[in-house]
Amino acid sequence: MLCLFGIQLQAQQLTYYDASCFPLLGKATQDTGARYERLPDSLKNISRPPLWNLSRNSAGMAIRFRSNSTRIALKWENLFNNHMNHMTDVGIKGLDLYCWEGNGQWRFVNSARPNGKTNQVTVIANMQPKEREYMLYLPLYDGLVSLSIGVDSLSTIDQPQINYPVCEKPIVFYGTSILQGGCASRPGMAHTNIISRRLNRECINLGFSGNGQLDLEVARVMAEVDASVFVLDFVPNASVEQMKERMETFYRIIRSKHPDTPVVFIEDPIFTHTFYDERIAKEVQRKNDTLKEILNRLKKENEKNIFFISSKKMLGEDGEATIDGIHFTDLGMMRYADLVCPIIKKAIK
Fold first, then answer.
1. In the 3-class helix/strand/coil scheme, how is 64-96 assigned residue by residue?
2. How far is residue 152's CA from residue 133's CA, in Å, rounded to a whole number?
3. In whole angstroms, what is the distance from residue 56 CA to residue 35 CA?
4. For a Cys-Cys bond, which of 125, 142, 187, 203 suits 71, CB 3.0-4.6 Å?
5. d(CA 56, CA 18)
6. N-term to C-term CA, the chain
7. Which H/E stretch holds residue 288?
8. pLDDT digits 0-9 by tens, 268-317
9. Residue 216: Cβ within 10 Å count
């Protein structure tokens, strides 16, 4: 009977369910034009076009569901079908499946590798038919037109039973291409997703590649989130002039609605090529000096709950943490999480 049961399971057809039926983590607002976008539709004709286009990337978002299926398959259509020469297609426009192990750990199951704009992939098969909790990370550098989850036709797929990652009081991150996820090999390795798993708390990723330039409308979106911590990591993109002009205003927009919530500022990374490129080294130093100067002024004005993270030990000392001297490899993402996680944990407490 057991053998026959196994044969019956293998013979089952896949049934697909629209992912919109299941909880979506990682959004700052629900007022978006489409489900897998990051900024409200009201900013479509207000934000700078590059910022708006990037907001349609699904960076940091994840679907939560549970199922007793022996297989998990995915069908999805990417919005742009982006491709870059320094980041894997899996990281750009693929998906990552994780499973809750019940020991305080999310474990990587497998990634869904894209072949183009429209994709259909069996992520995992031949599992025991027992109920498991899943988290599915969405593309970092592309958006989604549609997404469906496929399971055995006789199995169940339901809402998650456990509230992990905890969705109350999320951590809100703002920043640049690195924060958006460049250049993680797959979505689960973006450092905001690593931090979310480690702290078991929802993280919202408002990283905009090349465009973390302190646009004030983004601060207003952030200010609407009942966050546990705000993490501001914009220095790689913002010029010294932009920081002097907008940084304090950006901060005060958030602070005006969250007088006691910790706000974490992070320095520009000491990029690996700054050991050789003297012009870039001076620019990084100038930006970090400007950040510290403005923070010192805020503290003198009696601003509380401001945290500062030095980038001195962010990337290690071996020069192996980037793909191109700037954007992080998975190693760089892990090192960033190692540095930032303890400070965020302290700030939450």
1. EEEECCCCEEEEEEECCCCCCCCCCHHHHHCEE
2. 16
3. 10
4. 125
5. 19
6. 54
7. helix 278-300
8. 999 998 999 999 999 999 999 999 999 999 999 999 999 999 999 999 99
9. 10
